[in-house]
Amino acid sequence: GTTFGPVITARGLEKVEDQLKRAVNSGAKVVLGGKRPDLKVAGHFFEPTVLTNVSDDVPMSCEETFGPLCPIYKFSTEDEVISRANNVPVGLAGYFFSRDIGRIFRVAEALEVGMVGVNIGTVSSEVAPFGGVKESGVGREGSRYGIDEYLNIKTLNIAF
User: Fold this and answer.
1) How many Å apart are CA 71 and CA 49, to the nearest integer?
2) Closest among 133, 126, 130, 129 to 110, alpha carbons compared
């Protein structure tokens, strides 16, 4: 079955291409993908793209891309990678791989994001709250928490 569809809009596709170009111009290396596929169908398609040697200063490292770009970063310590991951103005979701249950809980707790995927590429479900922190949004949608944004809670204290 299909696992990658098109980027939603032409503007979104242009953003993917711009972020890729800026990363490559700053020294990143494309390991896989990196271009629009030669398809005979309409749509804003872009190949899933893996990059190495990506600087922390390029847009793909500090903006939400919403496209098939996967930069791979080298790091030496858990604290270093958490610090680098949190040193951005956005925080919708974070993903990482680990077999160590202690590390899974430490890193998931430390990441400044609204959703965390561990050993999986998806974080959303109709029963899980969806939303981010920082410039990635306030509040949640979906799940039982999604209704909270539509409620006004009133406290009433009475003394007789």
Assistant:
1) 8
2) 133
The single-letter DSSP state of residue 71 is: E
How far from 129 is each of 78, 123, 124, 143, CA to CA, in Å? 27, 10, 8, 5
Residue 73 contacts residue 51 (beta carbons within 8 Å): no
Dihedral, CA of residue 73, residue 12, residue 57 and residue 109, to nearest 10: -60
pLDDT digits (tens, 9 = 90+) for 110-159: 999 999 999 998 898 888 999 999 999 988 998 988 888 888 888 889 98
Place of tokens 């709250």: 129
Per-residue CA distances from 84 to 78, 79, 101, 143 (Å)? 10, 9, 22, 30
**Length of the chain, please?**
160
